[in-house]
Structures are given as C-alpha cells and as structure tokens.
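Pinned message: reference record for DUF1573 domain-containing protein
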Amino acid sequence: MTKTIFIILITFFSIQINAQTVDGKIEKLLELDGTIGNIEKIITQTIEYQKKSNFGISDNYWEALEKKVSKKSLAELKLIVIPIYSKNYTEIEIDNLITFYNSETGKLIIENQPIIMEELNLPLMQWSQNLSSYVIDEIENKGKNESSSDEEEKFKTEFKAKYGLQILNLTDLAIDQENNIGDLLIDFGKTDGKEDITKIIRVKNNSNKEIEFQEPKFLTNEVIKFDLGNKPLGVGETRDLKITLIAELAENKSYSMLSIDYNNGDRIQFGIKYDAPAKEISFEISDRKLKFKKLKQDFSRPYVFILKNTGKKEFYISDIELDKQIAYLNWNKETIKPNEETEIKVVFSKQLIAKQKNTDLKLEVDLTKGEKGGFSSFANETIELIIE
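Predicted structure (tokens):
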C-alpha cells in the first residue's frame, strides 16, 4: 500500500514538474517570436496616449504605472495564451520552434517583422479598398443583366399580388436581380455630387382598400429622402412615390436595402444604388501659429487652437504628435459634426522646457473622416500647427 502511494505521488509530481517545464518553454517561445515584445509596445503606446491626454502628472508616476500595468497585463496574457499553445503544440514541437527562433533565420524574421508590417500598412489598406471595389463591380455587372419581357410580366404579376400595387413605369426602374428577392432596384448611377437626383416609382392601387405609405423607420442616414404623399392612396388611384438622392451627403459606391412601410406593418422592399464622389475633410483653424510667452510659473496658460468642421461629413482628431516633449495636450476625442467647433489645448511645462534647447513646438494633427470608431473610408488629413 505504501509503495503504491509512493508511486502515485512520484507520478503526480512528475506531471507537475513537466507542466511547469512546458509552461516555461511556451513563455520562452512567446519572448523569442516577438509576442511579448509586441504586447509591451502596445502597453507603452497606451500609457503614452493617456500621458498626452492627462497633463500635469509627473514622469515618475507614468513610469511606475507602466511597470504595474505591464506586470499585470503580461501575467493575464500568459494565462490566456499558454493553454492554447499547450493544446495545439506538443512539447517536441515547442522545442523545435524555440530552436528555430534561436537560429539566425528565426532572429532575422523577428528583427524584420516590424519593418515589414509598417511598410505593408498602406499597401494592404489600398489592397482592401481594391478588393471592396472589385466585389462591388462584380455585383454591379450581375445586376446589369437585362430582364426579358416574360420576366418583367412575371415580376409585375407577382408584385401586384404581393403588394396590391401595379407598377406603371418599370422601364424607368429595374428588377433587383442582385439579391434575387424579386423586388425593385433604384439605381441612381454615377453622379457628379452636385445636384440631387429623384427617382419615381409610379404605382396604381389595385387592391380593394386604401393604402397608406410611411417612410422607413430605421434609416441610418439622410442620404435618401422620401416623398410618399400625405394621405392614403385610394382604390384605383395612381401616385408617384418620389425617392431623392441628396448630392451633398452621398459619397462612394453604395448598395443598400430599404423598404417603404404601408398599411401598418407590410413593407415594399427595394435596393438603392449610387456611385458618388468621395467627400473630403473640410475645416477651418483659428490660428496656424501662436506666439510663445515666457513662463512665469511651473505651467503656462493653455494655448488654444479652435478647429471647425466646415464640410458636410463628420471627422475626428485621431492623433496629435509633438516634435518635442515639452508640453501637455488636451483635445476632444469625440466626433466633430458639420458646423461644430472643438479646441486643442497645449500647456507648457517649465520642468520639461529646461531639458530642451528651445521652446518652438510643432504639432502634427491627424484628422480622420467619419464617426469615431466607425468606418472612415480611409480619408484623412494632417494639419501642422506651431507655437514659436
């Protein structure tokens, strides 16, 4: 019995030692393949971002905070990653990976990886845009298939049976073949972005009751406007349902699904398509240059740049880079909507200036189109601001 217990204990401790050994090897692998280094960079960048947004806090605090956050975050990361590596790699495979990353070739890969990723950043962004354009073009070509007269007659019959409405101007519209839903496609085509375009769905009420139309309740933007009439459509009556593309708001290639509600719950579904020029970021800045005044206290009064959105599209300040760390920044991190203003505040530190040769300061302010956290169409612009 004693012998059996001894064997069990030896086996248990052997498993624990082996598990610890494997965990240690995975940690070593995470260091060698650059995972730990990349995480440490992310932590440093996060701290630097907060440092710029919270001026007046000592450097010693930020250094201590970075060490504390690094210790906690890396420990949590290992708890997440180690079980996944253990599940997908045997110990022998982990040993082979460690050997590889310790080799000259492995070290070369890790050394060049950040450079390659940085150089690939813009090309991959362009590749992504080209991919989206290619897919849209393929969809458009599919949608350009002409309907035969039999298909049109079948569509009219099914549409009348489904909605109680007769389409009177199908030659001005199209059957939405792209989604194969058997409903209408309203194609505004390629626009110049200068004048609104109105399309008409001319319908006749072929049902036995009045039909009341309502605009879509969940329209996410104001690019499309509706004029559906202000009273119910009587039995046998005809009406033009007007759908207008607002030129100053529409941009890029777009294909979306919309619906007109009628009779308290039923919907007429249709596709909306257009190809409009991209809208650029438009802004005004109160000053491009401000004059530096000699500091009389440890911190200067705020130097304020006022930024106004003068365009039709919203944007936000995605980043601000200083050419030297002699001041602290504060700015609005939220979206700046058309006609709204925001402030960029700069506060100089006497302590930081003492470490530099001069007080001239250059700010590179990056503006990114779109709602913060949303799709930006990759449009951006950089403003150079100076305090001298």
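Pinned by admin. Summary line: The mean pLDDT is 78.
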